[in-house]
Amino acid sequence: MLIDEQHRTLFTHVNQMLAAFDAGEAAQALEHLDELVMHTIEHFRYEEEMLTRSGYADLREHQRDHMMLLERTLTFRNDVAKGVTPLWELLQFLVSEVVVKHLIETDRQYFGDLARWTSATGTVAGR
Ligand SMILES: [Fe+2]
C-alpha cells in the first residue's frame, strides 16, 4: 500500500546516501539527502492527511514528531554544507532517529488504527 511504498522509497534514499558516503562521494551523498528530504516532506504530508481523515487520536503528537525531524534534518544539512558538522553525524541521525525511531517504531503505532479505518471505509490509499 502507498505508505509502505513511500517508506521503502525513503529507505532506498537512505541506503543510496550510505553507499555514496562509503565510496567517499560526499557531494553525491548530499544529493541523495536532498531527494530524501523532498520525499520525506511528501510522505509526512500524505501520512498526516491519512491520519487526519481516519481521526487518529495521537495526530498532534505525530505531527510534532514530523516537524521536529524535518527541522533537525535541515539544520544538519546546513551545518554539513557549511563544514560545521561532519556528514557521518547527519547519516547517524537519519538512520537512528528518522528510520529506526520514527519510520519503523513510531509509525507502527498507527498501523492498526489506520488498517481498521481503511477496511471499514473501503479507503485504499492507507497502509
Ligand atoms: Fe510518521
Explained architecture:
This protein has 127 residues and is an all-alpha fold. It has one domain: Hemerythrin-like (Four Helix Bundle (Hemerythrin (Met), subunit A), Up-down Bundle). Helix content is 85%, strand content 0%. The chain contains five helices and no strands. The longest helix has 29 residues. It starts with a helix and ends in a 6-residue tail after the last helix. The mean pLDDT is 92. Fe (ii) ion binds next to α3.
DSSP helix count?
Answer: 5
Q: Given the helix and strand composition, which structural class is it?
A: mainly alpha
Mean pLDDT comes to: 92
Q: What share of the residues lie within helices?
A: over 70%
Low-confidence stretches: none
The CATH architecture is Up-down Bundle
Please state the overall shape, judged from the principal axes of the Cα atoms.
elongated
Largest sheet: none
Entry summary:
The chain is an all-alpha fold and 127 residues long. 85% of the residues lie in helices and 0% in strands.
Layout of secondary structure:
Layout: H1 2-22, H2 26-54, H3 59-82, H4 87-106, H5 108-121
Helix pairs in contact: 1-2, 1-4, 2-3, 3-4
Bound molecules: fe (ii) ion.
Fe (ii) ion binds next to helix 3.
